[in-house]
Design goal:
Largest sheet: 7 strands, parallel
CATH class: Alpha Beta
CATH superfamily: NAD(P)-binding Rossmann-like Domain
Bound molecules: NADP nicotinamide-adenine-dinucleotide phosphate
């Protein structure tokens, strides 16, 4: 269906868990050379153990917020080690369920550093001529339907994803002249650690959610399948857009 090969080098952030892990495994199974990145080396190794083409599954350990500007040098060193990237999938992200009454600058800064600023610098690094493969290269950011919808206590999460989608539109224009496409996926609720390990969510949160989704909650592979399409040449005229994948929940009145 898609024409990928082992020269298609794809870097994925947040590949140690959930959606990023599914993306890394799916793209690896389609024959691309994936560089799976995250903070948890043990979990990255578990992702690799599940991969169908282990020779085409590389692991790189990185905390993308520890020194955000240093992400530039990190990507330079990745490219020196593996070669220029065809695509970068920016999936690493954190959630935060806190009412505005409880917010302070350091709490707000952490979520923006992770969901927005780190991605901005990573995009800058990718756009450097020697770091990407030119025509056919692309960036995908994993956003959320909460960028445009919202609910109480997710001010920072919603705002950080809205900022990310705005960045995608600007980057699409700036990078188009070098043949780089930039898109986002606004995902609905997907069962991952972000939901199941979130102590700030009420106990009945997931059951309540399920009842709202016309097609039920999503699985990580639902997002991975869309990523495969968006980085393929079948999507060669798609840039600057946010593709909503949410089982129909956002069209409900
Ligand atoms: N699950 C959903 O319902 C849903 C819906 C819409 C959008 N999303 C978005 O999808 C993305 C993935 O979420 P998920 O559900 O798969 O969550 P997850 O299972 O908690 O995975 C989050 C990933 O982000 C990585 N990460 C977080 N902070 C990092 C940092 N400072 N440096 C490097 N990596 C970092 C984690 O790596 P380590 O564990 O190795 O630190 C992990 O691999 C997020 O951007 C999230 O906002 C999720």
């Amino acid at each position: 269906m898609y024409s990928f090969n082992n020269k298609d080098i794809i870097l994925i952030t947040g590949a140690s868990s959930g959606i990023g892990k599914a993306i890394a495994l799916e793209l690896n199974s389609l024959g691309t050379n994936v560089i799976a990145t995250g903070r948890n080396f043990f979990e990255l190794q578990k992702s690799k153990d599940l991969s169908s083409n282990k020779d085409l599954f590389q692991i790189e350990h990185r905390d993308i917020v520890e020194d955000i500007d240093e992400n530039l040098n990190w990507i330079n060193s990745i490219v020196e080690k593996y070669g220029a990237l065809k695509s970068m999938i920016l999936c690493a992200g954190i959630d935060q369920t806190l009412p505005i009454q409880t917010l302070n600058y350091s709490r707000s800064k952490l979520i923006f550093d992770t969901n927005f600023f780190a991605n901005e610098i990573l995009m800058r690094a990718f756009s450097k001529k020697k770091n990407n493969q030119g025509n056919g290269s692309s960036i995908i950011c994993i956003s959320s339907i909460m960028a445009s919808l919202t609910s109480p206590a997710i001010a920072n999460y919603s705002a950080s994803k809205a900022a990310l989608e705005s960045l995608v539109r600007t980057a699409a224009l700036e990078f188009a002249t070098n043949g780089i496409r930039v898109n986002a996926i606004a995902a609905g609720h997907i069962i991952t650690h972000l939901l199941t390990n979130n102590e700030t969510l009420p106990a009945n949160f997931i059951d309540n959610l399920k009842s709202k989704y016309p097609l039920g909650l999503g699985e990580p592979i639902d997002i991975a399948n869309a990523v495969a399409f968006l980085i393929s040449d079948n999507a060669k005229w798609i840039t600057g857009t946010t593709l909503t994948i949410d089982g129909g929940v956002s069209v409900r009145f």
